[in-house]
Design brief:
alpha+beta, Ribosomal Protein S5, domain 2, Alpha-Beta Plaits, binds alpha-D-galactopyranose
């Protein structure tokens, strides 16, 4: 049996701007999806889940029909389809899939599954794919499942580095790891509202995305990368376009400021930037919910320096930031204030190696072109 694994991610700052091709600052986390597999003698792909999902088996062809919407097997099919489009159909695999990324939490468990299964299919067939090549097929590949976000989740899962946040650029694509100060710590805290990828949530997500796009056009720009003047928002007459524009441009600034604070080891400034980011997601983009707002308030009350929703929003997790030696106290405060004594929904997250670093040393997947 061979093994590949791909981590989930938390986004530290830079929310709802990757699809406008603006830089973001996530980190890969220790929680991951692991695929153990044996190479088939034919083109059949079979997978059993050790986490209670029904076994799935299908023929690898150039045009794979999806399972009904919501079926976990669609991520396996998306991987096969993405590989086929770029490298053709090859030998299938018999796989065992397991993971410990909480689902529907905004931690990219589904992208990690897509990444891990894609790497398993490539490795099984001795295909060496670079990070850049994988980034060309994976975000698009997710369209097969009916979702299409930006490229942040796949890039973090692939390119994560232990101890580092990732400054990810999309236009053109490149990743710069930034060492996180050793005395900084992070918790992930679930709002207790699941962030399902339902069609209603997808519609809300797309609505923000398209309004941001329309705002850009209305102001006569081709790329958000060319815009830094937040006051231009006042020229927009549509309130949704105005709010989305202001969020996008100010969030891009916060990413730049957060990188500066991280490099300077300025924890207080970094925390303030996260808090400002949550405010913009709550009041501007309006993708938060009462649970996430209360959770982030409780985190600050418990002594965190910063707290914000992470991922698409509409439920899921908040990322909570504190000095490492304060983390246990903040966690206990959250358990008391938000969870009524239950400690099972808040856990530490550490910046971890991505799937390519884990695979380094194997001949099939290279982290460089
Ligand atoms: C989801 C998408 C990402 C990104 C975030 C919001 O997680 O998959 O690409 O757009 O939402 O920042």
């Amino acid at each position: 049996m061979q093994t590949v694994s791909a981590p989930g991610r938390v986004n530290l700052i830079g929310e709802h701007i990757d699809y406008h091709l603006l830089p973001v600052l996530p980190m890969a986390i220790g929680q991951r999806v692991t695929v153990r597999f044996r190479v088939s003698t034919d083109t059949r792909i079979s997978a059993v889940s050790l986490d209670g999902f029904a076994p799935r088996s299908f023929e690898w062809t150039n045009g794979i029909e999806p399972y009904p919407a919501g079926d976990w097997g669609n991520y396996l099919k998306a991987a096969a389809q993405a590989v086929a489009l770029r490298w053709g159909v090859h030998r299938g695999i018999d796989a065992e899939v397991t993971g410990n990324i909480p689902p529907a939490a905004g931690l990219s468990s589904s992208s990690a599954l897509l990444v891990a299964f894609t790497l398993a299919l490539l490795r099984a067939n001795g295909i060496a794919a670079s990070l850049e090549e994988l980034m060309e097929i994976l975000p698009d590949g997710e369209q097969y499942v009916g979702t299409r976000g930006g490229g942040m989740d796949h890039a973090s899962s692939l390119a994560g580095e232990e101890g580092c946040a990732l400054e990810i650029h999309f236009d053109p694509f490149h990743v710069r790891p930034i060492r996180i100060p050793a005395d900084w710590g992070f918790l992930c805290a679930h709002s207790l509202r699941t962030a399902e990828k339902s069609s209603a949530v997808r519609e809300e997500y797309n609505q923000r995305r398209f309004a941001g796009q329309r705002a850009l056009q209305a102001l006569g720009f081709a790329r958000y990368a060319d815009v830094t003047d937040e006051t231009l928002a006042s020229r927009l007459s549509d309130p949704l376009e105005q709010r989305c524009f202001l969020h996008v441009v100010s969030e891009a600034r916060r990413v730049r400021e957060a990188i500066g604070a991280m490099e300077a080891g300025d924890a207080a400034a970094f925390g303030r930037i996260l808090n400002e980011g949550h405010g913009s997601l709550r009041d501007g983009l309006q993708v938060s919910c009462t649970e996430l707002d209360r959770l982030t308030e409780c985190a600050l009350q418990a002594g965190a320096l910063g707290a914000r929703l992470t991922g698409a929003g509409f439920g899921g997790c908040a990322i909570v930031f504190a000095r490492r030696d304060e983390l246990a106290r903040v966690k206990q405060g959250l358990v008391d204030l938000f969870y009524g004594g239950d400690a099972s929904h808040v856990f530490g997250v550490a910046p971890s190696a991505g799937a390519l670093a884990m695979a380094a040393g194997t001949s099939a997947v290279s982290s460089h072109p």
